[in-house]
Amino acid sequence: MFDGASNFVTSVDNTFLMVLGISVFFLVLITGLMIYFVFKYSRKKNPVATNIEGNVALEITWTVIPTILVLVMFWYGWIGYKEMATIPEDAMKIDVTAQMWKWTFKYSTGLETDTLYVPANKPIEVILHSRDVNHAFFVSAFRVKKDVLPGRTNKAWFEAAEGSYDLSCAEYCGLNHSKMYTRVVALPEAEFNKWLEVKTKSSSKDSTESGKDTTAVSKD
Ligand SMILES: [Cu+2]
């Protein structure tokens, strides 16, 4: 769980565990108290109903404490959101196109691939487009998820640790939605640069760039 596959793993996981911890604490507390009161104030033990007038100190306590807890949860959520929404200016840009039911990645050299290759430990900006319906770019190991919508450009960023990770579509997009996944491969920077150079050369040799992607896709 804490495998540090991207720069967001620790903050997202810590926020999740904090919210989970608070929720479990109150689940146990409230359920325990409820069971306790069911026995304590049962008709057998308490035949005449007690009229409880209220308790100002208690009411203030159970208003103030949850308010603080909710604000703490909001704070950590907000900090994490801001970090994810602020893309570093020096990030490497990769164009991502989603369509029923595949992903296409386009690099600055014009190279297109169906597996996403990135240099490790470098900020990567993915610019997300959809050709048809709503999809979502989701790399669970990175804790990165962003909607990919037709007629709108969304962006996300991450810094990946070296390795290979699942990339899936996280928005139901039709019949083969569940097959719409591929891999993100994070290579050491020098290796990535070599890969990009070699692949770009070989792809421009065996495909006429203009012959690709001429199929018109109607958008509404
Ligand atoms: Cu999809």
Show unreliable segments. Answer: 209-220
Bound molecules: copper (II) ion
Overall average residue pLDDT: 90
Query: Helical region count?
Result: 3
Our estimate of the beta-strand percent is: 25-35%
Question: How would you describe this structure to a colleague?
Answer:
- By secondary structure, the chain is an alpha+beta fold.
- It folds into 2 domains: 9-85, Orthogonal Bundle (Helix Hairpins), CATH 1.10.287.90; 92-207, Sandwich (Immunoglobulin-like), CATH 2.60.40.420.
- Helix content is 36%, strand content 26%.
- The chain has helices at residues 9-40, 56-85, 189-206, and strands at residues 92-99, 102-106, 112-113, 116-119, 123-130, 135-139, 144-148, 154-159, 163-169, 181-187.
- Helix 1 (9-40) runs antiparallel to helix 2 (56-85).
- The protein is elongated and about 90 Å long.
- The two termini are 41 Å apart.
- Copper (II) ion (CU) binds at residues 98, 135, 169, 171, 173, 177, 180.
